Amino acid sequence: MTTQNSAEAEDTFAKYESQVRSYCRNWPAMFDTAKGSWITDVDGNRYLDFFAGAGALNYGHNNPKFKEALIDYISRDGITHGLDMNTVAKSEFLEAFATKILAPRDLDYVVQFPGPTGTNAVESALKLARKVTGREAIVNFTNAFHGMTLGSLSVTGNAMKRAGAGIPLVHSTPMPFDNYMGGAHEDFSWFERVLNDEGSGLNHPAAVIVETVQGEGGVNVARAEWLQGLAELCKRQDMLLIVDDVQMGCGRTGDFFSFEESGITPDIVTLSKSIGGYGLPMALTLFRRELDVWEPGEHNGTFRGNNPSFVTAKAAIDNYWSDGSFAEETKRKGQRIADRFEELCQRNEGIKRRGRGMIQGLAFDDPEKAGKACAKAFDNGMLAETSGPSDEVIKLLPPLTLSDDELDQGMDILTASVEEVLR
To answer: How many structural domains are present in the chain?
Structure first.
């Protein structure tokens, strides 16, 4: 096998691949192998991965516990493509998910497999909410990100991504996310007044869709009391509450679902990214049993039944979610990152920490410096990306399984990179 070097590979991509590619522009290397928290290029350079597939690799690269299950399944010619047919792999995943994830949390959700990605889950959630209520409008929040298909874009805040739709994005109403107004009018009394006012011009919404932590929006964390207030408002006003847990679910904030800490129970939940465990495509839409009004085949997709993902998803549940120890370890590591960021902020002006669990962000007063710090971190052997409306926030999404030594090593690299940029 002949492997191209980085320069040859860049020529290939420039010649054949669309200009839409993005991450490769920030990390100009030819990656070849990966294991755990590390990714290696063809020249043998190793990088600590604090990006983790944008949150799709919560359990690290090529997790050996999942790899063994996947190899065994493929070796015995297990079903790969099955649409929504009944298979052993799907049955075993559903049983593990129901008994080890849903039942201990007293969540009586049914599971829909809407397609392979997060935006598929969001599209099905929006369609279901409209079908159940007979209404069209969806309330979303400033700086939200829910996906790149038309329905998901309609409830996404980023102007550049919305512009890519090429047509008007309708039937959605943006509202301020928690702390968007600097603490003013965040008890939802203003929102309820608009809902009750026949002269407000707001059609009564079918649902509200929210992220408990806005990752792409800049690591904006909603307070538990704000989420509780939103859930109570939805009940009073007969609106369904959709929590988009595509990036923050599967343990990113500590608990399996990011909304657990607030004590709310959403009507609909979307999951993707790390639900497949191994980085394989998979998405779920979860909803209260009484909302299951779909007709057979009313929402479908060719790749909604990815059986290898069922295998590795079950392995993730069995190995990491049989008790609460993994969640507690994640919270401990998240606090360790938060403490390092707080120390960094105390030593330097122009930056501020944001985050919860193992989604942590560092917001810069000068947006350009966030990108420069990430570039320096890459030069020193670490992957980290920016987020926020002006890419002003360094967003850390390390594997939840990384060791304390790896965590400290990554934070040392990032700290040095930030301080060099701020000098």
So the answer is: 2
